[in-house]
Amino acid sequence: MKLTLILSFILLMLFSSVRAQQTEQLYLSGTGNDHTVKWDFFCTGGMNSGKWSTISVPSNWELQGFGKYDYGFSKDSVRGKEQGLYKYNFKVPAGWKEKKINIVFEGSMTDTEVKINGKSAGAVHQGAFYAFRYDITALLKYGADNLLEAKVSKHSANKSVNEAERKADFWLFGGIFRPVYLEALPLPHIENVAIDAKADGQFKAEVQVAGNADEVAVQLYTVDGEKYGLPFEGSLKKGSAVINGIFNSPKLWSSEFPNLYKATFTLYKKNKAIHTLSKKIGFRTVEVKERDGIYVNGVKMKFKGVNRHSFRPESGRTLSKKNSIEDVELMKEMNMNAVRMSHYPPDGHFLDVCDSLGLYVMDELAGWHGHYDTPTGTKLVKEMMRHDLNHASIVIWANGNEGGHNRELDPLFAQEDIQKRPVVHPWEDFNGFDTQHYREYNYGIGNYRHGHSIVMPTEFLHGMSDGGHGAGLEDYWNDMLLNPLSAGGFLWDFADQGVVRTDKNNTIDTDGNRGADGIVGPYHEKEGSFFAIKEIWSPVFFEHREMTAGFDGVFNIENRYHFANLNTCQFDWKLLNLKTKEELKGKSTAPAVKPLEKGRLTVGLPVNWTSFDVLYITATDMHGKELYTRSFPITLPKKEALMLVKKEGTSGVTIAERDSLFTTTANGVSLSFSKKTGVLREVRNKKGIIPFTNGPIIQEGATNFRNISHRMEGQNLIIESSFDRKEAYNTLQWTVYPSGMLKLNVKYFPAEYQTNFIGLNFSFPEDQIKGVEYMGRGPSRVWKNRLKGNQFGIWKKDYNNTETGETWVYPEFKGYHSNVYWCKFITKDQPFTVITENEDIFLRLFSAAWKTDQWHNYEPLFPSGDISFMHGIPGIGTKTQRADRSGPMAMKNIFYDYEKDPARALNMTLYFDFSTNN
């Protein structure tokens, strides 16, 4: 009998659900910044105010040429009185006459008063980032035009809303910035659904129903549209129903395997299906274990996260699904697995994309440093929950930011969330999570190292300009990996918030350094930190390996995935001769290495592998996306120098003493050196002067070359200083070859125990450089605490004067470049080349503009001179920490030898080719 009833119910669902009405939508606005609709518009203040015109909806009105641009710290940002008056005429389909009609605003900044046909739709809505709706059934006219009027105030009449949303460290915009649409529902209809689908297959749904109906049922479908499992039903009591079921072996949702199902709910009255509603869901369990960690599907998490504002330079906070896909794909490209919504809930399509592509989400109630009052906050929490609740990607809720926590709202999250996901207070030790922002690497007076809470900074490594992000991340991440209480963290932040100023000839404005905090630029230009993060956070970790003659083809690797075995990945290798471009390619069998375990990858190289310059190994994930390509140099600088340095020539080397100079000639190249210090003073060839001079100057150290002499050594001319332990402990030796090439060998001691710079400087006028071509790691510049992210190869860079976060031509030209073998300097007159036979030499190209913040934390340091060859370079700080407080990699360079023993001096050898056929 029971089996018969179940079968009857299934047959009823199969036939009646097809005829059930779905929720219908009619957009009055466009759907995003790539599809807008013109409405009538009147702005009360600022640009183009005081007159009726039209505006694209959705949009922020500043980006459309109205009102006034305000960054959150501007003095009039809260007391501003800008309002936008909107009008739009629309018709309602005749078939909607017997339905309930809601008007839905997905987001409007900040107070919104709505009228339909001159009558109020309801109370003024306060709060910018939340979807809200009014029942306008009784206000509509059918078969005739309807008039929608909306008055939008940029700043709220509610002080607490301004405290939470408008007094903030981000751009403040006005306008109806997310879509507006009508939804038509049958009179009895499903009002709302809350779903909890656990990793063990347990399924629970709470269904709210408006109107008279008998029961509600749910059927699950795979992404291919196939039915999954049997339907389950629940009887309605006082307008609500609870549906419980269990599904066998569901495919689980995680950031690595974002498996989704569709849950279709059908409402019945007298065995007749009258309304259906579908939701995308994922089976997964989020659990917090006190003093341990946060678990997803039973696996302890390390979040590799970033903070993300809803932002585009030409449309402000008005976005599209295409924008959401772009953002998530870039985050996934950096091997991130998590994102924090800063500092408000996002567009629904962003959460849809996080569900489908796989990112863990921390969704946040707005509240920068202030918070909503309890009545307002209660309403907005419920609106946020209704809109976002069922997204599998959301694993954590945040109640405000950095003191913007109304503690009276905390219980609401558990009341409204069927899944009981954890709630955090960013920047606070609360609810078992220590989320303090911007703690120093060696912070040891609290929970970061000696406490008992789960450590998860919701903001760390503030990426102002070129500081933070990839700079310092390797130190922090290695510490996070080792700390059992660490749940990872979230970088600040994803993209530079540079807005197109329609009032300033469409220039891009980041409000000084306030908005220049991104890993990518306003148009998603990739900074050097982008690639460093991609390498550091790669789930396939390669242990360092030198390519020596005894190399056996084996690399030690580690699986840093949470769920995936490395045998789901693909490994491709390539050997490349950088000069001839000859290459050999192959594949390696992916080893079976479980998550968080170590294994070995074998690369079957040919017997002649040492004839190539570099080995590249590319790891690709189970979705066909590149995780990272590691490069392993084979050729060493000394071997490369032997091939490039030409010593022989058809004529000999001559030397003459002229005033204070030694002047030498060889094969058309004339060189002048100071007789007193040995420093290079002039370079000339048949075509004229090459303005490369005044070096080597030792930094930081004493340029104390003394007692300069010269002698012949076979066909070569030697100019050198002599060693004196007290006054001339740094020595140089120049060798001029008959070919005209010049060799420099310097043995030197840094002046201090700890130094920012260790190296040799030369002068060259910046206005004469056009570009460089070099062999080394590139193409991005580096800092001592951001060496990851580059590949070994030959790179060509044109000169630019990019200031990171202020102009966006990347990679930056000026700065430090690592593991340089040789560099050809391309100038306005004639090029020259410098070659080294030393490993691990940094090339410094000029100095980016020196700038800092009010705390003197972010200070990009460069030595004197213009072009440098260095053994040691500085790290870079962030907006919130000096470099030396962001981890051991950023500490000053250390060299210890008070005795000035020549055997322990640093040694650098450089070759210079100033010939006309360079």
TrEMBL record:
| GO CC annotation, single | beta-galactosidase complex
The segment(s) forming the Glycoside hydrolase family 2 catalytic domain are: 286-505
Q: Name one GO molecular function term.
A: beta-galactosidase activity
Instruction: For this entry, list what GO says about its biological process.
Output: lactose catabolic process
Q: Where is the Glycoside hydrolase family 2 immunoglobulin-like beta-sandwich domain?
A: 189-284
What does this protein need as cofactor?
Ca(2+)
Q: Which UniProt keywords apply?
A: Calcium, Glycosidase, Hydrolase, Signal
Domain Glycosyl hydrolases family 2 sugar binding as annotated: residue spans:
53-186
| Residue span, Beta galactosidase small chain/ domain | 719-830
> Record's InterPro entries?
B-gal_small/dom_5, Bact_Beta-galactosidase, Beta-gal/glucu_dom_sf, Gal_mutarotase_sf_dom, Galactose-bd-like_sf, GH, GH-type_carb-bd, Glyco_hydro_2
> Where does the record locate the signal sequence feature?
1-20
Q: Which reaction does it catalyse?
A: Hydrolysis of terminal non-reducing beta-D-galactose residues in beta-D-galactosides
> What Pfam families does the record tag this protein with?
Bgal_small_N, Glyco_hydro_2, Glyco_hydro_2_C, Glyco_hydro_2_N
Family to which this protein belongs: Belongs to the glycosyl hydrolase 2 family.
Subunit composition and interactions:
Monomer.
Its protein name is: beta-galactosidase
Q: What is the lineage of its organism?
A: Bacteria, Pseudomonadati, Bacteroidota, Sphingobacteriia, Sphingobacteriales
